[in-house]
Amino acid sequence: MVTTLPNLLTISRILVIPLIVATFYIEGSSVRWVGCALFIAAAITDFFDGYFARRRNSVSNLGRFLDPIADKLLVSAVLLMLTAFDRVSQVSVLPAVVILLREILVSGLREYLAELRIGMPVSRLAKWKTAIQMTALPTLIVGDAAPAWLPAQPLGEVLLWGAAVLTLITGWDYMRAGLKHMRDTP
Asked: Which among 131, 133, 134, 172 could bridge 163 via Cys, Cβ 3.0 to 4.6 Å?
């Protein structure tokens, strides 16, 4: 059922993406803070949709389908916009590419394993990767609009690199687990 609270939170995360993207096209420091606030609100819904689904025992097929897609759409859109608007240094485009490639790899792997009826739960390290990534991105959205005492741009890029390192580790862990199942299956 679409109208469960977790599903509404997930759908809201998808619907806010165009608003976040729009903030990149409007000049001004305050608009960057609006984009940051919208991203943070979306990231918070990611936590609460899962929390409410488990707590109320209202996990749905739609929610299981939409939740990871909503996350990937949100992160991908922001990474692309940060890159397109030169809000990350050229060298920090590399962790953005690593993050995007890992998301595609893991999505494909999960889809393949689902056909074999094999689940691939999210690891604790992957949750840390997500937390660091969800801290890096709003920090980079604000970037130069941050107060002088807060080095948001360099801090955001360091966090992005940290997320990329964890992305490589967790991507390898998922791939290794997936390959084991691929070898076991005729």
From this structure: 133
Pick the closest to residue 141 from 42, 72, 50, 11 (CA basis). Answer: 42
Q: Do 66 and 49 form a contact (C-beta atoms < 8 A)? A: no
- 73: domain range? 5-184
C-alpha span between 179 and 173 (Å, rounded)? 10
Asked if residues 127 and 134 have their Cβ atoms less than 8 Å apart, the reply is no
The pLDDT mean for the chain works out to: 88
- For residue 68, the number of C-alpha atoms closer than 13 Å in the C-beta half-sphere is 15
Section 14-40 average pLDDT = 97
Least confident of 11-20, 27-36, 45-54, 105-114: 45-54
Residue 19's CATH number: 1.20.120.1760
pLDDT at 185: 55
